[in-house]
Amino acid sequence: QVQLVESGGGLAQPGGSLRLSCAASGFTFSNYAMNWARQDPGKGLEWVSGIYRDGSKIAYASSVEGRFTVSRDNAKNTVYLQMNSRRPEDTALYYCAKGLNYRAHYELDYWGKGTLVTISS
Fold it and tell me: What distance lies between CA 29 and its chain's CA centroid?
């Protein structure tokens, strides 16, 4: 069955970098777009970033563009989210999600359980 397991979250200070990882299994990873979303209890669910199956196209939410970088390693069945210039408002539970097809950014059919990122001084 499809499994998505996020890691790399934790408590960090504003500024600096943090990298999240999502290990995928149970499907042909290289055939599907992968996405990141986050949920802050006070704000609801927000789509953060998506990457085509071959990395040829990448998109970001305006709230993170220029600070976050998504990438994937199809040989390792893993997608990453590099978080730079962290802000307190980046505090959230970060989810990895599988797209319905090779380019889906909003049509997502499987989700991980999330990894909590807390940005605080």
Answer: 15
- Residue 90 has phi, psi (to 5 degrees) of -80, -5
- The values of phi and psi at residue 52, to 5°, are -60, 165
What single-letter amino acid sits at 13? Q
Of the candidates 12, 20, 1, 10, which has an alpha carbon nearest to the alpha carbon of residue 119?
Answer: 12
- The tokens describing 66, both together, are 């220029």
User: Tokens representing 73?
Assistant: 């390693």
At residue 90, the 3 state secondary structure works out as helix
pLDDT digits (tens, 9 = 90+) for 92-101: 999 999 999 9
pLDDT of 26-72, one tens digit each? 999 999 999 999 999 778 899 999 999 999 999 999 999 999 999 99
Q: Burial level of 79, CB count in 10 A (0-12/13-18/19+)?
A: buried
Question: Of the candidates 7, 119, 102, 96, which has an alpha carbon nearest to the alpha carbon of residue 47?
Answer: 96
